[in-house]
């Protein structure tokens, strides 16, 4: 018999060994938590940045197969090390019960997040399909998880008997078993208020999104709610009773350590939620909610219900899922567009989530009931605040539209042979309108009966219609419909971006290098030709009509300016792009190629993401200008159409365009005798075949690439051939460090084929001013431009290829335009 106060020699040695092992595994778990957060955040940010670079620089999406790889990487980076350290902790530190539970939560969260990432393989343009896929996958995983848990409990009950199986796990440590037993002995409390508290906390975290974001369409919003509910339900399988039970040693431990571990688990879990880019916001706002989740469980102590956690995470996740369009959360639109406001909402959500967790930790005392009057008043206040936030934000639904293209397009045969320019333009306009009115009538009657909003177009026989997937399927099945494209419709912003201002020095008395390279200054000085009598139309971000280099050149009248974006009544430009391109074409002060020509303008791209309908709004105005407030179908004045169009834009896949969508429009301009100049694009990094977007790919337009001051092909300039194997670009022009006008009486240097394109439009203006008989003669003008172009310098090996894309013409076209030689050739026609 052992004497009192004489311990066995082995006992202190065993305890000391366990204590040291606990310390080691605590350190390992802390390091593991840092690894979980750092590796997942780093992986997601890098992959999103790579995707953005592919879209901007290469004009292509991240391959859908990349997302399963990303999901698998999350599992490998997080789940495997977490499971391994948890296994070791359970074996060598059984008294530290919280450690294996923490690593189990991180393992499960990584597996679920990795699997959910697979849903991102659905193309970004179809957010409704993605949200539906996410909802189905998350709900399926939640059902599987619960079914597996029920099966384990049933098998354990059969093996051990009901008494032994209740509340304990077959592989539970002694410490876990002791806690579970004590919890089972405690009287249960109602957990309904916990769910209400979780939902209210989620709504509070949602407030920044209500103010700064904007909802999509009805179907998209409902699917976002379904997806958010599913991921919230699935999260309760990670932060479940067993998880919180491991931190039941005390209230401070549950709120502090439990909240921290839960927050770490929500990082890999959030990485799988939302289309590409949306997950970054969720990875910011969900982890701080770990503390609020812990507080909710403390409030429901000792019943330990995770139901409130599901409501908390689900409602909070609804914000990024519903109030941000993933294709708009892109660097394409610039840093002061959706990315800025979504980032601001996410950062505000972090602060709000932390505040909610702190408040709940202070408010909720174990075992104390949340009285119904208090709960009702709190819910009412939160609801009123949320409604007010939504009202001052961007209320209403702002979903995508559908672009319905009819099978029959106008037959313009014979119009090009009409000698009189005014008659030729009028015939083109009348035939286009007549065809569209006749063929659209049945579809319009049906749309009217369904009370669907729509906008008809005649330049391309098409209708832009509001509607979701079901409407799309119905319209696509009609005999008179050729195809239905998804039309991007940007959601509104809380505030417009600040107006752009240039930072370059004003031009001097000598024309800049680009004007001298193409010989435009020699045309003015030696030939006395400045473009007088010709009007150049520019569809772009707008034009600062008050700029000193542009004010005198505005054609004027009530049909020379149209702004379908912001409905301004005088030429305005907040972006700067359109002012710059207009200045290069017709600007005074030595910056414009044809300073004597006049200009008219239209806003087709106020923010840098358009759609076929947005482009057609301006193209129809250019074919048949109409007065402010007029109707394009009834009030068009084709005789007032500009002679030349400069188009420094393209319609890529991300805007919902396909290769054929604008072909009827450019064919109509050619038939009408309007010279259509288009930018080749800035995707030269993608190598050969990078000219692949309308309108640059069409034979009816003159496609322009860019060179620098050394006459070398610019590295960004897109290359041929086109998808139809056309030899593009047609010609080259200066497109690097081009000085031109910018809003606010400023000046700017800019790069791009956007800058090269107006040079060529200006040269055509000079040619047609010098030789009026050329006006409307597209073929002869093009032949002169090609025949007088000069050779460009530069590499004949592109993108690592050993050849020149098959022929030099796919790189250089006919060469750099020569304004002086072209005008001389035009004059020689007599």
TrEMBL record:
It comes from the Bacteria. The keyword Transmembrane applies. The keyword Glycoprotein does not apply. Keywords: Hydrolase, Membrane, Protease, Serine protease, Transmembrane, Transmembrane helix. Pfam families: Peptidase_S8 (PF00082). InterPro entries: Peptidase_S8/S53_dom, Peptidase_S8/S53_dom_sf, Peptidase_S8/S53_subtilisin, Peptidase_S8_Ser-AS, Peptidase_S8_subtilisin-rel. The chain crosses the membrane at residues 23-50, 70-89, 101-118, 130-148, 196-216, 222-240, 252-271, 277-297, 304-323, 338-362, 374-393. Residues 165-184 are annotated as: Disordered. Residues 531-791 form the Peptidase S8/S53 domain. The active site is at residues 540, 577, 754. SUPFAM superfamilies: Subtilisin-like. Belongs to the peptidase S8 family. This is Peptidase S8/S53 domain-containing protein.
């Amino acid at each position: 018999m052992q004497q009192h106060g004489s311990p066995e020699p082995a006992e202190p040695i065993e305890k000391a060994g366990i204590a040291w092992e606990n310390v080691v595994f605590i350190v390992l778990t802390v390091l593991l938590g840092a690894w979980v957060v750092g590796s997942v955040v780093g992986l997601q940010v890098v992959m999103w940045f790579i995707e953005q670079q592919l879209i901007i620089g290469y004009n292509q999406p991240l391959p859908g197969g990349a997302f399963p790889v990303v999901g698998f990487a999350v599992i490998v980076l997080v789940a495997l090390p977490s499971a391994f350290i948890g296994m070791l902790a359970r074996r060598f530190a059984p008294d530290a019960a919280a450690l294996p539970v923490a690593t189990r939560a991180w393992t499960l969260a990584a597996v679920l997040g990795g699997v959910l990432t697979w849903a991102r393989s659905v193309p970004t343009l179809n957010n409704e399909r993605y949200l539906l896929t996410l909802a189905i996958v998350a709900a399926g995983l939640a059902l599987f998880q619960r079914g597996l848990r029920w099966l384990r409990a049933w098998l354990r009950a059969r093996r051990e008997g009901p008494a032994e199986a209740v509340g304990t796990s077959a592989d539970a440590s002694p410490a876990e078993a002791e806690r579970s037993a004590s919890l089972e002995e405690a009287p249960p409390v109602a957990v309904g208020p916990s769910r209400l508290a979780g939902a209210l906390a989620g709504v509070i975290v949602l407030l920044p999104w209500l103010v700064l974001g904007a909802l999509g369409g009805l179907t998209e919003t409902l699917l976002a709610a379904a997806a958010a509910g599913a991921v919230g339900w699935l999260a309760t399988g990670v932060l479940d009773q067993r998880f919180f039970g491991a931190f039941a040693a005390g209230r401070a431990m549950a709120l502090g350590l439990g909240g921290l571990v839960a927050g770490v688990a929500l990082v890999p879990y959030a990485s799988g939620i939302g289309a590409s880019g949306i997950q970054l916001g969720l990875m910011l706002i969900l982890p701080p909610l770990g503390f609020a989740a812990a507080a909710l469980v403390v409030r429901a102590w000792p019943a330990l219900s995770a139901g409130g956690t599901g409501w908390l995470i689900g409602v909070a996740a609804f914000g990024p899922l519903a109030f941000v369009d993933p294709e708009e959360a892109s660097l394409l639109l610039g840093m002061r567009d959706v990315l800025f406001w979504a980032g601001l909402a996410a950062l505000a959500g972090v602060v709000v989530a932390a505040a909610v967790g702190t408040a709940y930790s202070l408010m909720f005392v174990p075992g104390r009931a949340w009285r119904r009057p208090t709960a009702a008043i709190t819910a009412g206040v939160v609801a009123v605040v949320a409604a007010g936030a939504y009202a001052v934000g961007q209320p209403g639904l702002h979903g995508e539209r559908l672009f319905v293209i009819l099978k029959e397009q106008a037959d313009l045969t014979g119009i090009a042979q009409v000698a009189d320019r005014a008659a030729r333009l009028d015939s083109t306009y009348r035939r286009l309108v007549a065809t569209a009115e006749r063929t659209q009538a049945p579809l319009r009657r049906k749309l009217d009966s369904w009370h669907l909003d729509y906008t008809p177009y005649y330049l391309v026989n098409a209708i832009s219609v509001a509607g979701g997937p079901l409407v799309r399927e119905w319209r696509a099945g009609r005999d008179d419909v050729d195809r239905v494209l998804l039309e991007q419709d940007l959601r509104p912003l809380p505030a417009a971006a600040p107006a752009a201002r240039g930072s370059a020095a004003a031009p001097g008395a000598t024309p800049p290098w680009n004007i001298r390279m193409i010989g435009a200054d020699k045309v003015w000085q030696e030939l006395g030709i400045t473009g007088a009598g010709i009007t150049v139309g520019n569809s772009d971000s707008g034009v600062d009509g008050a700029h000193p280099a542009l004010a005198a050149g505005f054609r004027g009248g009530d049909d020379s300016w149209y702004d379908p974006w912001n409905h301004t009544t005088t030429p305005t430009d907040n972006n700067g792009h359109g002012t710059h391109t207009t200045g290069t074409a017709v600007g005074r002060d030595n910056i414009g190629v044809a300073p004597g020509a006049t200009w008219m303008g239209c806003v087709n791209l106020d923010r840098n993401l358009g759609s076929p309908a947005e482009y057609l709004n301006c193209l129809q105005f250019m074919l048949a200008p109409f007065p402010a407030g007029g109707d394009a179908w009834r009030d068009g004045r084709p005789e007032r159409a500009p002679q030349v169009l400069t188009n420094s834009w393209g319609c890529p896949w991300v805007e919902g365009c396909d290769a054929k969508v604008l072909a009827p429009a450019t064919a109509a301009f050619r038939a009408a005798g309007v010279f259509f100049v288009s930018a080749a694009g800035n995707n030269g990094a993608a190598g050969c075949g990078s000219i692949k977007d309308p309108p640059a790919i069409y034979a009816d337009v003159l496609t322009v690439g860019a060179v620098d001051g050394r006459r070398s092909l610019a590295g960004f300039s897109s290359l041929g051939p086109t998808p139809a194997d056309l030899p593009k670009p047609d010609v080259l022009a200066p497109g690097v460090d081009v000085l031109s006008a910018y809003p606010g009486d400023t000046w700017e240097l800019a790069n791009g084929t956007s800058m090269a394109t107006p040079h060529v439009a200006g040269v055509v203006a000079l040619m047609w001013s010098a030789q009026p008989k050329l006006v409307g003669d597209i073929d002869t003008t093009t032949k002169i431009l090609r025949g007088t172009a000069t050779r460009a310098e530069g590499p004949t090996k592109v993108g690592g290829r050993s050849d020149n894309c098959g022929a030099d013409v796919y790189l250089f076209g006919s060469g750099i335009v020569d304004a002086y030689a072209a005008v001389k050739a035009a004059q020689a026609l007599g």
